[in-house]
Amino acid sequence: MRLTFKDVTASYNGRPVLAGVSLSLGPGLWLFTGPNGCGKSTLLRCAAGILRPRSGRVRLLPRDAREEIDAWDDPTAYRWHLGYAPQELLDLPETTAGRYLAYLAALKGVRPACRPERVAAVMAQVSLPDGEVPAFSTGQRRRLALAAALLNDPDLLILDEPTQGLDPDELVRLRLLLVELAADRIVLVATHLPEALSGCADGHYTITAEGVNRVGDPA
Amino acid sequence: MNRRWDELIAEVTGQAPAAPADVPDAAAPDAGGADGPDRAADVSAGCAPHAGTTSVTCGAVAAGPGAACSPGLVAASAAPGSPRRPAGTAGPGGHLTPAEAEAVLARLATHLVPLPTAADTEALIDRLRPLLPQPAPRRFRDFGLSREPVALLLRAQLQHFRPAWWLASLAFVLLGLLAGPSLAARGLSPAVLAPPLVIGGVLYGFRSLRGAALEIELSCPVTPAQVALGRMLVPLLYYLVLGAVAILPVPGLAGALSGAVLPGQALVAGSTQGAVPAPTGVFPEPAYAQLFLGWTAALLLFAGLMLTLTLYVGTATAAGLATVLWGLLCALHTVRLSPFALPAGPRWTPVQLALLALGLLLLATGLYRRRLFHWPPGREA
Amino acid sequence: MNSSPPCVVLRVTFRGEVSGLIRDEELCRQVQEGSEAALEALVHRYHRPIFAYLYRLTMHQQTAEDLTQETFTRLLAQIHTYRFPRPFRPWIYTIAHNLYRDHVKAAARRAFPAADPDRVRPSPVVDLSEQIAEQAALSQALRALDEGERAVLLLRFYHGLSSPEVAEVVGIPPGTVRSRLSRAVRKLRDLLEPTAAQDGRSEMR
């Protein structure tokens, strides 16, 4: 199981943000920190198949697979193995969490017979009670996005700022959940608060204007 | 019988196995060996060359079916006076002859051990059972995901359309019914009301397709075009049905709405300038069919436009552009070139059909699985 | 006292396998996945052979029983390391053999000998049936062999392992298997005094 970035160059809103980034990540929890606007979200969006890099390749080797899947040569296959929770908070018009997750489950290819059970399972996994989404707190919205990302039991889990807006209890719960998930998945997390998660991370990368560097490596 | 013995004997002596025991008169040390090649076939053919013995199950039956030893051997100890030891004995300390080897093996074969009983075996199994590995729980992805291409998921999309919308659309069409005669008076067909209906419906259906929700959907194994088309089909189909009900004369409906003048009839009356023909049955008159064609063409054309434009520039801009286009097409009516005019002249129908085809073409792009367009993602914080 | 082969049960249980006995390797794989039926089948197949092997090595019933159970326990503990279709038989015999060696070493360290080998029967002075005498003679002869010679002989002769398999179980080069086997048989020939036994039998009759 491996996610590979090869010489990825990407820009966002016209600005070049990533230049020739190469990374190879196996199962585990990988943190990405750095100042705003330097490309954390862009990197994660490229990994999530939402933003197409100018050049370079993003490839995933799923568990039990022999061949890598390129995010842009075979987008549908790539997204089977992917779960993404964006930085922006989920803002949905009148709908309940359960209904929304059932809809996404359908989009992600969950079998119709398995959908209700799977939705209940991911909501339990993130400790999210059902309810009207417009009335959700920040923490609940973050958990809803996380639940959505887990619906298809992905090999690659990408979370952009999952810690933002969480209270300390929720932070602890999130950390425990991430450690459990990272045991046999590739989990990418962009965060402003590395201290909250660095203790349990397998690797820590900073993204600055100079590029992507692994913390702990000599500069 | 015992090839395996032969193998063993050959191994330990370096020679082929001894002749059967009823060749007792070879006195030379290597007699067995000399006879060996000739006798090998005989020996291998049969096992119990010792005359006068009865075969008894081998004591070495301890081996199970997977590890055959030398079953069915002669228990030589039961045989009186049997010439157990063929000649060719080299004697203690000397070179081992095949005959001697065979004799040793034959005796060894009778060795007994106090084997465990069936009850012992069951008891052992009971003690071992708790140590069985627990099978790993199956991952959800291995059984819960269908690898079929994700269909348009009409049923799933329904959840985005609340009851309020269904009613509002119906109300709009009823208002259109009432406005029908005045439209007809201006020479416009009901098709002129289709574009705003579509634009409104798409704006409503896509209202959650922005920001985080849009990004999440884009990270699903569906193309952006499929996402957009899926959201669009529900309103589209609904409007087609509403249009059909309003325009086409349905016998029951005619009775229910008696007193109100159906726009179709009014329009037909307007265009033919004759008496209103009574509805004659399930199949509409050509005039009704034309009106419905006009409605459908306008619907599909603007739906296709909205889909394509949304994928390029986003929903809001697409809605704006489509509205402007609608305005232009309406304005063309002043020079009698609007597609929304009442059916008139031989060119009307082909034009409508062409517009219909164009609309279908634009919609069909949503069915391609390749990523055709790049939907602008949300803002970066 | 042949163990009744449970093949009939297996044919029904394992998805209607009609082609005959299921291979050990396939059973092992099923045990890896937690199949109780496969475990039972393997134990049925190998309980007696492993016991017989350990008994002939130790010549002590209780020790052989304990080591046999330990063999299966260890097998289950290591089952996750099994890779199909690695041959099963040499593997289980290797475990048994290593357990025997550990037992011998431990006994030596404890500085008193492993339990005295069983006698076949307490010996009355007269009226020994010739079978008992024969058994005693064979047991003694086997005991007289070196440990290495004995193991090789037992595995090759009683348990039908091939020379390469024996080499793997005992941990010696394949060439050594043959020489040890020869030595063992030669020693047994010398020990078993066949002429005397034959005379003895003639007398009895």
Comma- or semicolon-separated keywords:
heterotrimer, A: 219 residues, alpha/beta, 6-stranded mixed sheet, 4-stranded antiparallel sheet, 7 helices, 10 strands, globular, C: 205 residues, mainly alpha, 10 helices, 0% strand, disordered C terminus
Structure notes:
- The complex is a heterotrimer of chains A (219), B (381) and C (205).
- Chain A is an alpha/beta fold and 219 residues long.
- Helices cover 32% and strands 28% of the residues of chain A.
- Chain A has a 6-stranded mixed β-sheet with strand order 6-7-8-3-9-10, sandwiched between helices.
- In chain A, helix 3 (97-107) crosses helix 4 and helix 4 (115-125) packs across helix 5 (138-150).
- The model of chain B is unreliable at 20-88, 251-261, 269-284 and 369-381 (pLDDT under 50).
- Chain C is mainly α.
- Chain C is built from 10 helices and no strands.
- Chain C has helices at 7-13, 24-32, 36-58, 61-77, 88-109, 130-144, 147-158, 163-170, 174-192, 194-204.
- Chain C is globular.
- Residues 1-19 and 196-205 of chain C have low confidence and may be disordered.
- The interface between B and C is large, with 54 and 67 residues.
Radius of gyration of chain B: 48 Å
Helix-residue proportion of chain C: 55-70%
Low-confidence stretches of chain C: 1-19, 196-205
Instruction: Please tell me what the overall shape of chain B is.
Output: rod-shaped
Number of strands of chain B: 0
Order of helices and strands of chain C: HHHHHHHHHH
Number of helices of chain B: 15
What structural category do the secondary elements of chain C indicate?
Answer: mainly alpha
Quick check: average pLDDT of chain B?
A: 69
Counting DSSP E segments of at least 2 residues, the number of strands of chain C comes to 0
Q: What's the helical proportion of residues of chain B?
A: 40-55%
Strand content of chain B: under 5%
Query: Helical element count of chain C?
Result: 10
Summing up helix and strand content along with how strands pair, one would put the structural category of chain B as mainly alpha
Report the order of strands and helices of chain B: HHHHHHHHHHHHHHH
Q: Roughly how many Å apart are the termini of chain B?
A: 86 Å
Summarize the main sheet of chain B. Answer: none
Largest interface: B-C, 54 and 67 residues
Largest sheet of chain C: none
First-last Cα distance of chain C: 27 Å
Q: What does the overall shape of chain C look like?
A: globular
